[in-house]
């Protein structure tokens, strides 16, 4: 792959630093600009083939409107935001350059790109930058998937908004019960210990980011309501006093997921648990 020059706007943050290292190791030149750097966002437009917006969505939309009109048609404008409909539309409306919304489905503490999901939402591909983007990530072992921005946001309401909502809700319940992690670990199963550690993992990071991941996705309330309805259905199945009803409920769910998946999931989670205790 021929090297290109990549500019990361917001590159002083965690994800910007992560991808600076990744692109550099892949043989590309990388320039970084932030609010307090001497290099400006306009410098990236002038000097780079690819400009990536690595910042919260509201800021990214503003920067896209600021630098987009100055970009050439043969350049590429990307973003790393967690939602796509708004930012992809903003980028496409601000520039004549190619536009590809990009969502790395991992955080800056990840050791390697191998096996990680990256979702692409291309809006304009007049100069075939899409093939380059897919290749540069696939070369690192990523699983690259194309989606429409609206579909992406619906799926993120499940994969991110609901997941983090559940983690925060469990944390709140433990707080109201005055149950500290050190105490809970004394009687925790491996899965419960992992769930508690996921609470700590979330709280150790940028809380404003997680607040936005839950409340900033307009699809999230619908998904949360569906989960609450499913939770109520589960409550009725398990606490009706009818043990057979509970067993039938679980059997019906298992049929949906299939025996092959369930066996594979058991094996994979067992490896995770073994690794957790070995460390």
UniProtKB/TrEMBL annotation:
Record carries keyword NAD: no
Gene Ontology biological process terms, A to Z: tyrosine biosynthetic process
Domain of life: Bacteria
Any one Gene Ontology molecular-function term assigned to this protein's record: NAD+ binding
InterPro entries the record matches: 6-PGluconate_DH-like_C_sf, NAD(P)-bd_dom_sf, PDH_C, PDH_N, Preph/Arog_dehydrog, Prephen_DH
EC assignment: 1.3.1.12
Coiled-coil region: none
Ranges for domain Prephenate/arogenate dehydrogenase: 4-268
Keyword set, alphabetical order: Oxidoreductase
Enzyme class of the recorded protein, top EC level: oxidoreductase
Pfam families: PDH_C, PDH_N
Protein name: Prephenate dehydrogenase
Organism: Desulfosudis oleivorans (strain DSM 6200 / JCM 39069 / Hxd3) (Desulfococcus oleovorans)
